[in-house]
Amino acid sequence: MLAGLVISTSSGRQQRFDFRFSQGTFGDEDIFDSALSVPGRYLVEVARRLRRQTPEADWFVVGNPLLPLRTDLLAGWLDGPPSSPVVATDRANFPVFYVLPRRLFDDAERFLLLLSALDATLDACLLTRLLGETVSCRQVDLEPVGEALSASPNGWVNGDQRLLSLKLQCGTALKLIEERSDWRTLPFATFYPMHAGDVLFVSVASRMAEQTFFGKHVVCSSYMDIPAACGSRFEAIRLDLPWIPRDGSVSELTYFSQAIEKLGSEVLEENVLVFSRILRLYYHSPFHLVDQARFALGESLESISQTVHGRPAAEQARCRLPTKPLRVLFHLNGGWSLKTYPLDKMRVVIGTLRKLGVEVSVLSRPDLESAGAVSLESKDSETLRRLIEEHHLFVGVDSFPHHFSTLVAGWPTIGLFGNTKPCNSDSMYRAGYRSSDLSLSCNRCGAYDGCPVFGTKECLNYAPPAKVVTDIFDLARETYGYEP
Amino acid sequence: MSVRVLAFFDARYQSSADVRRLYGEGDAWRRVREARPASRQHFALNLPSTLGQYDLAQPEAAGRVVAMARQVGIDGFVLDCRWDGEAYVTGAQALAPMCGDSFALAFQWRNGEEDFWKAPASRSDRTERASRLISALKVGLPILADGRLLMIVDRPKELADPGEVLGILKEEACRAGLPGLYVIANRSEDKGRFLSNGYDALVDPGPAEWHSCSPSNRPNGLTFLEVMAGLRDSVDYLDRFFPYVLFAVARMINRSQRGKVMPRVFPAYYDWALHPDGGATHLAVQGKPFDSYIYGLFVENAMLFSQQNFAPDERFVFLESWNDWLTGSQVEPSLLDGDMIYNATKSAIDRGRYVIQTRNEESAGGIDEAMKTRIALLVEAAQTLSAASGKTGG
Predict the structure, then answer these.
(1) Which of A50, A473, B185, B298 is 20 to 30 A off residue A89, Cα-Cα?
(2) Which residues are CB-contacts of A370 (< 8 A; sequence separation ≥ 6)?
């Protein structure tokens, strides 16, 4: 739920608009659901809708996007037409809604991304700087809500203290704005430095985004080759830190704080950092992660035709080698064990393909050489591209090489999905792409090391070998006219 | 065509004469209001909130029901068709005026309640009864599957001479001016028996009829003795309890081996009110009757399955239920749960429809059947070899 209310002081008219996080529809009440967006991005989006629908209004009252708020509540808490900007709070100084003048959105819309949405004093300070006039805090009759955010019904994630990164982001930006008189002209950098697939999604999004607040992208040193290989429009800022471990041993807040320290004053004095790590349950949304990144970068995405799946497919590439023997490159290792295509199934796939005269290569799986495959190593995007281009088809699990093959190289690709949702990270369904899974009711489970339903080490949602082999020959026929 | 979501609908909540004759006089809601759990392990029955305890015979009440169903993304209702001794009754007249604009009706024939169809009978007798059944289905805008009116046979195993009966029904449908009959058997798997008898497809049975996984309670002799000694709740012995997640996931496993079976999804299920003497089926998620997230995945994935596996005009997901308050499976907003299940259903259908839109089905044409068969044989051989080498430690 997202709430916005507009007030026109000349007429005294008040209008209310309730929105929801879209679940796949694009109606007037729907706002795109993007896990990579800070709360301030939703505040901007609500305000965009309000501005469009009420050109005469001069005050906007927007609920804190972290909270499930309705406009009737906001209206009840207002005490007459506003005369100055306000951050309304609960009894513990948690921001509940913001009363902001229209000119703020006209002049400094992108700086609203920096709101903490957690600390009213901090937000009031930031808004004071942005507006050049004092913004006060005013308490409304609401018990403290802060603790409840650890399990937000509105879809926000606060595990590993990641929401607290928003306060750090706000404080860092505030310092910069105080120190730099030319703060309005500083470039924005999106802080989404890992993992490889995510860096790729942001890079592809930067290329597709027609409207963006950003010009730079903070990237872990081990992934610095990815933005350029993906044709990113953003300048990459190098972060000399290893990527965050998946085991939760380092919190997002700690990592962000270490990153700020590591980036150093040279970067921090010249760029405005926006924390763009996943803040909402991304798989609760049916939208592709590239689209989720595009929204975070500034696009509104108000129709399916604007999405990755709805846009016309880009020109596709094809292998120039003779089609016989057919050469297929596999990538079977996900970032965690449950995302890896099961070993016994893979052996069957390779054995069957070999019997049908297909040459099979796998990335970084010497253990599959005994099944008849050749194991190849890819250390960077350039090598990966070369290996892909030496094969007719690419078949991969939901991981960087798969996304690179289809979204960047435009290669004939088959996506194998198990415990992740295809719609979040597949590709445009066109000649040259297809995905497979069994649509089990548990998808997506979100588990890492073992199946939470059946207790197995492998995901049962992966397509069986016969389906994978059939899809390979289908795709080979479709794209190359190949007949075995 | 996108996947259509059809919800089972209990039409008894109306004061029209034929429905009252079938279900008995009096207020149909009374049974829901007055049902009392016999155990602390039984979830209490719920009651409607937004729509109230409606009487479908009142057009404004029926209109509100259909409007809410449309809003959630449901494409039609499946109504029971029952023999009352003289005629078939559906209760569909109350809803018929509200149909149209992509909302329509289908029927589930409760054939198991009629001895007539279980026994041998002459063709003319069967034809006469079949014509009455068909005429009862000619109400309102029908849901068409493959261009034909959709009807579920509730107890396919209880039809004597199913091939002949289905043939007669289809003939009578044509004679009555219907565009034909698309008949679905209420069965979890085919094994070549049902489709060859003339059924067009199957649908997963309800939770009480198909326990798709093992129960979490496994009563034995000791359980019985403890119950008899008053040391234990009798429902531990008499009823069956299932974890909702496993129950729902197990239904979607190995579907390709079960034939052309359409998925049935449900947010919750506990039918103790229908089993006063025990034998009820209960689904639970960590002590609660439902989990809206898991249920949403169930609906969304069932829609994707249907889209991927069936012909465009035969893609259905059956939702149990719109208003079966006696089993707790209702989607309608309720007093105890508010709009939670209703909203979860809408979100899941929205997500499912969006994802389906993202998939382009057009293909230049796949490999031929001979090649598919060859692949299947090779895969089977490789799997056998792999299993054998596993057994020998090779």
Answers:
(1) A50
(2) none
Determine the residue of chain B that is closest to A481 in CA distance: B364
Q: What are phi and psi of B341, to 5 degrees?
A: -70, -40
> What are the φ/ψ torsions at residue A236 (nearest 5 degrees)?
-85, 130
Contact B375 A348 (CB under 8 A): no
Which residues of A are less than 8 Å from B365 in CB distance? 477-478
All residues of chain A having their beta carbon less than 8 Å from the beta carbon of residue B366 are 470, 474, 477-478
Facing B249 at nearest CB: one of A351, A441, A464: A441
Q: Mind listing the pLDDT tens digit for each residue in B300-309?
A: 999 999 999 9
Inter-chain touch A441–B294, beta carbons under 8 Å: yes
For the stretch B215-243, pLDDT in tens is 999 899 999 999 999 999 999 999 999 99
Q: Which CATH number fits domain A327-480: 3.40.50.2000, 1.10.10.10, 2.30.30.240, 3.90.228.20?
A: 3.40.50.2000
| Largest Cα–Cα separation, chain B | 73
Q: What is the DSSP secondary-structure string of B126-189?
A: HHHHHHHHHHHH-SSSBPEETTEEEEEES-GGG-SSHHHHHHHHHHHHHHTT-S-EEEEEE-S-
Residues of B in contact with A438 (CB under 8 A): 252-253, 255, 305
The conformation of residue A96, written as its DSSP 8-state character, comes to: E
Do B107 and B318 touch, CB atoms closer than 8 A?
A: no
**Using a CB-CB distance cutoff of 8 angstroms, which residues of chain A are in contact with residue B352?**
24
Chain A residues close to B350, C-beta within 8 Å = 22-25, 286
For A332-382, strand residue ranges (E) read 359-363, 374-376
Q: Nearest Cβ partner of B301 from A348, A441, A460?
A: A441
- Ordered alpha helix ranges (H), A147-190: 165-179
Q: Are strands A13-21 and A2-8 parallel, antiparallel or unpaired?
A: antiparallel
Taking an 8 Å cut-off on Cβ atoms, the answer to whether B351 and A441 are in contact is no
Q: Minimal CA–CA distance to B301: which of A212, A11, A283, A324?
A: A283
Token readout for A35 is 């896990």
DSSP at B285: B
B266 Cβ neighbours under 8 A, 6+ residues apart: B206, B207, B283, B295, B298, B319, B320, B321, B329
Instruction: Out of B364, B378, B386, name the one closest to residue A344 (CB).
Output: B386
The percent of residues in chain B predicted with pLDDT above 90, rounded, is 86
Is B246's CB within 8 Å of A453's CB? yes
Residues of A with Cβ-Cβ distance to B367 under 8 angstroms: 470, 473-474, 477
pLDDT tens per residue across span A71-99: 999 999 998 889 899 999 999 999 999 99
**Assigned token pair, B181:** 């009959």
A401: preceding bond cis by omega (within 30 degrees)? no
pLDDT digits (tens, 9 = 90+) for A292-312: 999 999 999 999 999 999 988
Q: Other C-beta atoms within 10 Å of A432: how many? A: 21
Is the ipTM here above 0.85?
yes
* Cβ contacts of A355 on chain B, cutoff 8 Å: 378, 382
From the list B294, B353, B383, the residue facing A24 with the nearest CB is B353
Give, rounded to a whole angstrom, the gap between the first and last alpha carbons of chain B. 50
How many residues are listed for chain A in this entry? 484
Tell me the domain boundaries of chain A: 2-306, 327-480
User: Do A460 and B251 lie within an 8 Å CB cutoff?
Assistant: no
Q: Which residue of chain A comes nearest to B365, CA vs CA?
A: A478
Are B350 and A441 in contact (CB < 8 Å)? Answer: no
pLDDT score recorded for residue A232: 97
The answer to whether the CB of B386 falls within 8 A of the CB of A344 is yes
